[in-house]
Amino acid sequence: MTSNEAGTHGAVLADPPPPGEAPLVELRGAGKSYGNIRALHGVDLAVHPAKVTCVLGDNGAGKSTLIKIVSGLHQHTEGEFLVDGQPVRFSTPREALDRGIATVYQDLATVPLMPVWRNFFLGSEMTKGPWPVRRLDIARMKATADRELRNMGIVLDDLEQPIGTLSGGQRQCVAIARAVYFGARVLILDEPTAALGVKQSGVVLKYVAAARDRGLGVIFITHNPHHAYMVGDHFSVLRLGTLELSAPRSEVGLEELTNHMAGGAELAALKHELAQVRGVDTGGLPGGDDLTAPAGD
Ligand SMILES: Nc1ncnc2c1ncn2[C@@H]1O[C@H](COP(=O)(O)OP(=O)(O)OP(=O)(O)O)[C@@H](O)[C@H]1O
Ligand SMILES: [Mg+2]
Question: CB burial class (10 A; 0-12, 13-18, 19+) of residue 134?
């Protein structure tokens, strides 16, 4: 893996291609079947530098299947998958990583009892000295992790503390900074805020924005239209494996997004049901009254 220090990706990050050039990652009519189960079908998606593409959808909508294709875990069974305009078919996540596509999974692959700096370099440790007396370059790893985290605006008191003692949000942030440092051009975040409270989610969203500002194309998977709308430039809503909505921020508002997410009609039905329950105030819920079907409501 190349680091930013080596400058391999520096030029790419500092100098994004002008509009109209090939997206970093693109899916055209892509789909995936697991045997008889068609998990994903006819999906178009484009990821551009310095933009956040949000992929929303309910449980089983196909979000994970989509990112598994892009991250090299699974192969698509229909349509096209392009990186920098070239059709690709990755056999392993390593191949995706080599093209600068990094994925931060929700169950982060960290070693809880190891210090933060050690986790930052896990699997890509810096070494010094010639073989066979090669050893870990601890001082350089600590200094680099410290600098990189600060560059992303992440300030931790002590990088010696076991990563397991950090909050879930902080761990996500370290993982994001790590991906940025190791030269990611495309960062995939699989529901990074799903298990977090409001404040912690805010912190993670801040670093999603920081990664975007560093020039990365971000694919942000979430259930939460509010989180998506805080950072998103483009919104793709999956429903039963197909794209229900694909729209730039300028063409979709938060309420419409929420409606799509919940499935407007279903949400309206739910609102109608909730309205029958004493003590539940449905007034502020999206899904307008016009949708609240039967008369007599
Ligand atoms: N390995 C697999 N084998 C068979 N079916 C699968 C496999 N992986 C996913 N599916 C099916 O594909 C569909 C989409 O699943 P996927 O995990 O992509 O949804 P998701 O949007 O990520 O859902 P969630 O929000 O619950 O994570 C589901 O119906 C699921 O049961
Ligand atoms: Mg999933």
Answer: exposed
Residues 160-172 have pLDDT tens digits of 999 888 888 888 8
Sign of the C-alpha dihedral computed for residues 117, 149, 203 and 24 taken in this order: negative
Residue nearest to atom 30 of ligand 1 (CA): 60
Ligand nearest to the CA of 63: 1
Residue with token string 């999974």 = 105
In sequence order, the β-bridge partners of residue 53 are: 219, 234
Give which of 275, 274, 250, 215 is closest to 17, Cα–Cα.
215
* pTM for the structure as a whole: 0.80
DSSP 262: H
Alpha-carbon distance of 206 to 193, in angstroms, equals: 12
Distance 94 CA to ligand 1 centre (A): 22
pLDDT digits (tens, 9 = 90+) for 10-32: 344 445 445 557 899 999 999 99
| Domains, the chain | 4-252 (3.40.50.300), 263-297 (no CATH)
